[in-house]
Write a structure and sequence with these properties.
single chain; 204 residues; alpha+beta; Diaminopimelate Epimerase, Chain A, domain 1; 2 domains; 8-stranded mixed sheet; 4-stranded mixed sheet; 16% helix; 35% strand; globular; Diaminopimelate epimerase; diaminopimelate epimerase activity; isomerase; DAP_epimerase_DapF
Amino acid sequence: MKNGFFKGHGLGNDYIALDPADLEFRLTPKRIRAICDRHWGAGSDGILALAPSTKADFGVRIYNPDGSEAEKSGNGLRIFARYLYSTRRTRKKQFTVETKGGLVAVDLHTDEHGNASAATVEMGQATFRPGALPCSLPVDELVQQPIRVAGRSLIFTGVSVGNPHCVIFRTKGQAWTRDELLSLGPALENHEIFPRRTNVQLAV
């Protein structure tokens, strides 16, 4: 089917999965932004594009909604696994996928009707080393490190599982406000100590 796609979500994180060979146009950053637009496009947190691989059963390129490319996404990979099975690109329940952030092993689960119902992905070993994110702080591990952002002094932990994450916990019993999420999220994502940007988790 020309220009067809598969859409799914993992914990509310939604992606469009597709095969670029089925498209009548080339996936460019501009077109990715248009497709992911919540008002004028299909609306998505990103695009999972099937890609060739010489190292794994399948390859995938993971695009952010701004058109840039991500290393890995746990939710995205689970959606991609279901896409592969539901579109009969594979009938195997265990297979591997090559991402920009490394190889991932997938274990697919099916229901009593034989439909893909869930997927488990092996994201790899977590590391707190600055070079893995990367992060420019001159420390051995990014655990409980101070950061100044949006006029505030906060404590963060940086971790990579093939893709970078900046995690900040709020004081116990307090919740982040919507205004804080909207201001701190982008500021942390684009902070100067993260030269390639980072995912952000504001936790409680």
